[in-house]
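Protein data:
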Amino acid sequence: MNTLPNRTSVASQKQGREHEHIQKLGFNFEELILPVSSLSPSSPHEDHDACMTELEAEKLNEKLLKFNLKAGVWATDRRKGRMADSYDKLVQDISAELQRLQGFEQILKEDTQMEDEVIKIQSQIESHKILHEDILSHQHPILSLVYQAEQLTELYQEELTPEQVTSLCGEAAFLKKALEKVLKTSDRRLKHLKTAEDELRKLETEMDKFNAWKDVSRDELTNLEQCLQRFEDLKPIQENQKELLADILSHQADIRYMSMSVQKYVEEAKLYKLEVDSYRADRQRPARSSLISMDCVAADSVKDKLKDISEDYVDLKHKCTAFGDLLSELSTKQTGFNDVALKMLSWLADTE
């Protein structure tokens, strides 16, 4: 009888440890121990008779072991259930982002060629900025989904089927590639638009200044021609004509400067059209050398503007040069006339 309390103490310690382990798995130890302890003899007179016998302790251990195994199975099932929910949610989110990217792709495919006026290009830039910022706002969520997919397939591969792993990896890779394509295309087009807008702005500013100067110079030439018709003194007219011609020749550099802006704008406009066409056809953008033979309505329109200005400039220069030639011819004739007149006056004087 003296050894029974010791056995009971050992059994109680073991039950306590098992009780703690089961509680970690989400079970109530009292629900397991009550049915077994009801088999033990109970007497209000002898406390030691209420303790478990060694046989009862062994039976309890066996039952606890069975419930431990069941608890492990149930925990695994719950984990698999949560894994299935996570997988399904991730697949749904990836599918939703793919649809969003397809919407961006459609907008990029429906894009038109670059405009040929500053105010129109500015409107085009603002619209494209909104699209680009919208794409950027979804970059982080999409990359987060790709990272989650990588972690899920890497760390929990054993709890997924091979088909699920292959499918998820493929969808995540496709999502990342689609994002890179849309983002790169949008960024490239926006840069083309901004560069073209800058060159076209410089071109239009120079054209306005050049046209204003050209109008003043043409009016001055007209005034000199009228002075000649009134038989005014030829010498000041000649001096003014020479100054005007020198000024006209100095503005040849303006034509060259505007030609450089036109060339840069045309290149950006063609690159933009090339970007749109290749994206719409889902093919790689050709090399820059293909721009040489490429048609572009916007580029042709801007080149025509410079062509008109150049032709007006050449016409003004030719008229001023021709007027100078006329003045030189008149000056020569006037000199000859003056010589003849002096000789006649001298002859008349001698005759008298």
Remarks:
- Residues 4-92 form one domain.
- Residues 245 and 318 are 10 Å apart (CA to CA).
- Residues 162-229 form the longest helix (68 residues).
- The chain has two domains: 4-92, 118-351.
